[in-house]
């Protein structure tokens, strides 16, 4: 593959010239002369999440990891005030000169004492970079001095200087390896080129489709469009006025928005005669995002709870004296600016030493994957309502592609499935791509998400078995109604477990659920699923309920009536020692049924 390095720096000697000559012999056939891969077909079943069938192994191409932009620079976070609880977003749509040139490797960057949750500021105000600061960050501990090398803060009217022109080399105009699919080669080369050039209007324009349209462009053309103007446009200003605290343009789309009512604690439920309709009244819209009035005080409490070893603060840890307060404060909600540090800490605590080597992500970026075509198809439709992922081939979409590409090479059994996209995208809101890849690997190994993504989804079926057992014990009438109307739990709960409830509850609720999930593991997801069924039990038991009404209800987008009450309910259920012991026993029971081949017909 022709790397971005070779476009900016021609070979300096004969050996380099010979190494690159084989990639410049001919162009890839255009779309008009060959058919696109069949993997572009829309996937309509859960098993199609794996995309097309695997082809033969591909040989690695030239290493491009040396030239991709240093990923720890992708998240500039101007430090918001501790009590703001808001979204610091800068106001331009242009890239800086630094974004179009090769950056020094991570090892050469100066060390400083900024926390993991506050990546290095950049002299850029591009929406492409600054929108990741929509997630507020922790302030430094008073005991650790600030680094003297800290760059100046972002200035809202800074504008980039046009970069030095580079050779007029068209995107992906090279011959792929003999064993590599031409479409995959074209896709990876396109992303590599755009990593160097950036994309015009990132964050507020939809962008141009290049990979599926097989659209070629020279580096000069890309850069000319990228730096066409230095003025702050009205369009960019309008974008900043329309996004919410987390950077979303609009609320998630759903056929039905339902209010998730506050419920009594989980206990054995005996149904009574009632005239409750089979479905509750839908909400007209998702309520606006709110900030807890206790956000500022909680920021200060978390500042006293965590510490990071000097000098680099690569990983925050919990002070030993605060261990007894961790669970309570997790369920009360992690302040948004502390969430990145807390997530990294919780994931590492539970995953142990299962993190990949530090340079593994960069090593995998340039290796071909069987799933590149499918990943490229899924990237633009993953959380597309967020400013970070709105623009085709913008920084967010490129980072998401690289992370999913690398993670698809992590495990031969799992490969890639669509459920990985929302998980990786949510992590990218808070972490740079390297850390996101590391966290995905830790979830895969330490949280046993391997079984969720594995072909056949054994972990998914295990969780559904546990959910059905809890339902059968606590809500026998609802379980009987599911049997009567032939409601399969997989028909409505699959997306809950595959995506960790992304796109099923408001983003703010999803974040708090992930706080608890990273603390306590997959049982939290089962309890959340039971909480939804529990909240609508009277509607599910309605005399006029039907297959259609039940499935429609449970496939809705759920907005908690009282988010704090919901997490108190989940916390109380997770504190039930008997319930937790039974959940462990039911998981073992399911494993035994599978090993004996007796699992067929056990689930609803």
UniProtKB/TrEMBL annotation:
Residues 82-93 have a biased composition (Low complexity). SUPFAM superfamilies: Ypt/Rab-GAP domain of gyp1p. It comes from the Eukaryota. Residues 1-183, 272-294 are annotated as: Disordered. Pfam families: RabGAP-TBC (PF00566). This is RabGAP/TBC. Residues 333-521 form the Rab-GAP TBC domain. PANTHER family: GTPASE ACTIVATING PROTEIN AND CENTROSOME-ASSOCIATED, ISOFORM B, RAB GTPASE-ACTIVATING PROTEIN 1-LIKE. It comes from Sistotremastrum suecicum HHB10207 ss-3. InterPro entries: Rab-GAP-TBC_dom, Rab-GAP_TBC_sf, Rab_GAP_TBC_domain. Residues 1-31, 126-149 have a biased composition (Polar residues). One of its GO terms (molecular function) is small GTPase binding. Residues 277-287 have a biased composition (Pro residues).
